[in-house]
Design the sequence.
């Protein structure tokens, strides 16, 4: 199975600001999956990195 990743990049976030991303996706392989862990950090300050575990999802046919 081919691994495909979605990378999102913003130049600026205000304090407490949230982004909402809506995706229309087509199911090709139903099942239970765990996404890749994600992280966020200021472009020139990787020492201030914050990360979390991958999201667990169950996809029905």
Sequence:
């Amino acid at each position: 199975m081919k691994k495909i990743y979605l990378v999102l990049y913003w130049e600026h976030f205000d304090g407490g600001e949230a982004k909402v991303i809506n995706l229309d996706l087509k199911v090709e392989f139903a099942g239970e999956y765990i996404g890749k862990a994600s992280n966020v950090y200021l472009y020139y300050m990787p020492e201030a990195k914050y990360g979390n575990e991958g999201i667990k999802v169950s996809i029905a046919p």
Notes: The chain has one domain: 1-61. The chain has a mean pLDDT of 83. The longest strand covers residues 45-52. The two ends are 18 Å apart (CA to CA).
